[in-house]
Each structure stands twice: as C-alpha cells, then as structure tokens.
C-alpha cells in the first residue's frame, strides 16, 4: 500500500509571459515566486533571455515566437485563472504574446510594461511602444506602469497622470495602477511612496513608507502578485492593495549580494536558514 | 527619511544550469523554488527551453552556449556556494556547462543526470552520455541518478548498483546518491522507496514511504535541495537526508492540475490560499 497525498485544493494557475533574468531578482523566476507566495501556481513562457546582474541589463535576446506558441499549446489542458505579461522585447514576440493571450478570452490580464532596466538600459523601441498600445493594451485588464512608462506609453501626452491614464483607457485598457517610486509626484512627502489606481469608475491612492536602496524586480513582483490575487478572485481594489503590501514586505526583507541593487525576498515567510524537515519516518 | 530594511543574513547562492520547464514542475523554476525553500538563493542559467506539459516532453531546444557563457560572466560578482546542473541537451551546451563550472573551482557541484523525461521521452544520446562521463563527471561532487540513469551512465556495466557507482567514482565523481523510486530493487518492500548514497569511504541507505501517483520534477527537487543544503555547509550525509525529506514532503503536498502527473509543491509551508499581508501602515 502506497501512502496517499494529503488533499490539496486546486491552485489558481497564472500564465506568465516574461523575460528570464539569471539573477532571480526579476523576470519569470521572480514572477513564479511571487505567484506561489500569493496562493497561485505559475506557468512560465519565456519572451526573452537576458544577460544581466544587479547593476544593469547588458543584453536581451528575444525568444523564438513559434516556440512560445508551441509551449502555450502544450499547456492547453491547464485552466488559467489569470495572465501576467512582462518584458516584450521584439515585434515578433509581441505577435506571439497577443496570439497566446487571445486564446484565453475572459481571463484577467495584467501587463507590466517593462520599457527600461532598473540600471537604465533601454529595453524597448518606439515601434514596440506603438505595438503595445495598438495590439496589447485593448486586451489588458490592468496595466502597472511607473510614471515614466506611463509617459512613454502615452507618447509624451501633455497633462497629469490622470489624463494619461484616461488616454490609455480609451485604447481599451480597463484599469491602470501607476507606481510612484522612481519619479515621485512633487506634493508627495519624500519619505513616502504613492501609487494610484485609475479605473473608469474609481480612483484610489495608497501611500507607503519609502525604503532605502535600489531594488531589482519590484515591478515584476507587484504585477505577478496582482495577477495571482486576481486569479484567486479578489476584487481589483483588494488585489491592488494586497499586491502592494506583499511587494513592500518583499523589498523590506530584501538582501544585497554585492554593492548594487537589492534583491526582493518574496519568500520572506520561509526561514532564512534551512529548517530541519521532519515528519517522515525515515526507515 | 526613508525606512531601512531589516538586517537579512547573506544567503548562500546556488548557481543552477538547467532546462526551462513551462509547467514549473521541473527545470530551473522548480530548482529555484527548492533552493529558496532550503535557505538559499538561486541564479539560473538556462541550458534548454522545452515544450512540455504534465504528460510528457515534446520538444527540447538547446540554449545558445555563448549566451550561457555571457550570462555566467555577468554573474561574476556573486559568491557561489554550490552549483546544480540538470538537463544538458547538446554537446555544445555541455561545453558551455563545463566551461562555466570550471571557472568556480572548489564549489560543490551536484549533477542530476536528466536522460529521459518522466513521460518517457528520450532527452539524451549516446554521444551526450559519453560527454557527461568524460568531461563533466570528473568535476562532480555528487551525482543523483535513478537506477536507469546509473545503468546508462555506466554503459550497461554488468553487476549491481554498487559496482556501477564504483565505476563512476573511478571517473572522478566523488559520491553518488542513487534513487530507487522508478525501478525498485527486488528486496525492497513495495510500499517503501529506497535511496542509497555511495562514496569512497561510506555507504548509507534511506527508506521512505512510497507515495501514490506519478510526479513531475521529483529529481530536480532532490538535486536542487541537495545543492542548497551543501551550500549552507551541511555535511554530505545530512544534506542527502534533508534533501530527501524535503522532496518527500514536496511530493506528499503535491497537486494534480489534470489527470496526469502530480506537481510537487515545494513551498507547502506557505499557506495555499493567499494570506492577508499586514504590518505596513498604508497611509
């Protein structure tokens, strides 16, 4: 007689389309961690490989779009509760991403528009920004740009963040959570970080204590946690709030392997040192 | 004044060279999870992309070996406490793996010789087996084959597992943990699974309750947990025992998304449903 597994509830599955970051600070490994820590299970389809460390990204190699499509087809027997899209590094991978997303109509889609690396390297082009606006935004349930990304996605539109958010909503994006860490609004105290949710019928702001240091992967963490929360059925406002709280804690528990960026520790609730694993009779 | 992060100990870093599995059951995402759950931090360099689901692997696309080398170079400022090598899918990626590993002399190296998918698909060739034997095994501190892999790596050598293990140790491999789940030894009771550690000066056996079902990623989980444990400075025997206990628990807490293989849940100690994240003043 073999031993049966304890009953485990069905986990909400989040499909991640994102780049791979060898450091684990960002990209699909980070997304997977954030999703697991928020109660989900991640499937990951790489959109790009990168060469990077905790200072900057030195190379982005777009994935083969046809291989991405075949990976998605092979996953057809998974129920998908939410989708998270991160770095889209070429027009042909954007085609693959839109094809894959369109095969799952009605599934909440979170887009983290990764346009530039934390270290400053450009990861996008004007053509790609146009492609994101025209082909992907109409499918997006919630977009999570920082203020610079919001500005670039609205092609330098004059006015404030609200006006820019409204412009993106006219393109079909359902809601926008604008993060204010990197480029703070003048009237926000310097020891606070303010994030704002824009949606057609509501607007909501959150303010968090600003953390010291430069972080590697905070945007990925936020968007992936948000997708997992939406996948479990949380409301938009609750999911936005909990994803922010989760990200804040991951950053506050981050660790710094060298002199450069801090890596978020999304599994801070696990012990740092390996615990002894017990409970199995070993003979 | 920004808020400082709480002090976090330096995490032992494990460099993973492995394939990517979109399901997250196996491959570098799984390795990263296992390493985090055992107190480490994973850096991941992909050796291959795969098309697969919980039934079988339908495609393996070897990574660009030069991109792998550049990824490794970019990570030079990380201290590496252990290395885990998984799927090596071509001779040129084997070259890259050996080059990368040789740049970190003295770092414990765990090799999980992935030669066949759980669903039965062949992932290796006679040429690759020869390459593993001649070029990678001399660098390996501990090898984690199942009994079929042990037989293939010894080119069908007559005799028992001990004789085969001794043959691999003459090639330079320091120790071998042979797993007995898939191809049990006749004298082991059918409700138990027996794993055996062979090393020049010791031999040790463990017996575990056999779990129902087919699992996707148990070998990756074991080898990655073992690397993390060695990276924290645990002794070989303690690390082998704890990695087995961890793997057993991950499998026992696994979940089954469809009718096919069960996915290990390496983060079973996190709540399944998302917990409310508190502790941050939100305004």
The ordered string of helix (H) and strand (E) elements of chain A is: EHEEHEHEHEHHEEEHH
Tally of separate domains of chain A:
1
Poorly predicted runs of chain A: none
Would you tell me the structural class of the helices and strands of chain A?
alpha/beta
Q: CATH top level of chain A?
A: Alpha Beta
Major sheet of chain A: 6 strands, mixed
Number of helices of chain A: 8
User: Largest sheet of chain A, order of strands side by side?
Assistant: 3-2-1-4-5-6
Question: Would you count the extended β strands of chain A for me?
Answer: 9
Strand content bin of chain A: 15-25%
CATH homologous superfamily heading of chain A: Ribokinase
Query: Average pLDDT value of chain A?
Result: 92
- Spatial separation of the terminal alpha carbons of chain A: 16 Å
**Largest interface chains and counts:** A-B, 94 and 93 residues
């Amino acid at each position: 007689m073999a031993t049966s597994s304890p009953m485990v509830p069905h986990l909400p599955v989040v499909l991640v389309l994102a780049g791979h970051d060898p450091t684990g600070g960002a990209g699909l490994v980070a997304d997977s961690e954030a999703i697991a820590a928020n109660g989900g299970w991640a499937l990951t389809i790489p959109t790009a490989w990168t060469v990077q460390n905790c200072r900057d990204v030195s190379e982005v190699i777009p994935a083969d779009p046809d291989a991405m499509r075949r990976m998605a087809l092979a996953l057809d027997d998974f129920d998908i509760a939410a989708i998270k899209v991160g770095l889209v590094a070429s027009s042909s991978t954007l085609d693959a991403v839109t094809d894959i997303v369109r095969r799952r109509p009605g599934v909440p889609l979170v887009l983290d528009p990764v346009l530039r690396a934390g270290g400053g390297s450009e990861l996008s082009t004007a053509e790609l920004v146009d492609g994101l606006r025209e082909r992907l935004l109409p499918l997006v349930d919630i977009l999570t740009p920082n203020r610079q990304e919001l500005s670039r996605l609205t092609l330098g539109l004059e006015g404030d963040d609200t006006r820019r958010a409204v412009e993106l909503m006219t393109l079909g994006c359902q809601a926008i959570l604008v993060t204010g860490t990197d480029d703070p609004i003048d009237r926000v105290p310097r020891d606070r970080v303010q994030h704002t949710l824009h949606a057609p019928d509501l607007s909501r702001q959150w303010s968090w204590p600003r953390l010291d240091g430069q972080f590697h992967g905070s945007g990925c963490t936020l968007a992936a946690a948000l997708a997992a929360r939406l996948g479990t059925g949380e409301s938009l406002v609750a999911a936005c709030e909990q994803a922010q709280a989760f990200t804040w804690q991951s950053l506050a528990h981050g660790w710094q392997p060298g002199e450069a960026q801090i890596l978020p520790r999304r599994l801070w609730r696990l012990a740092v040192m390996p615990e002894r694993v017990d409970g199995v009779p070993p003979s």
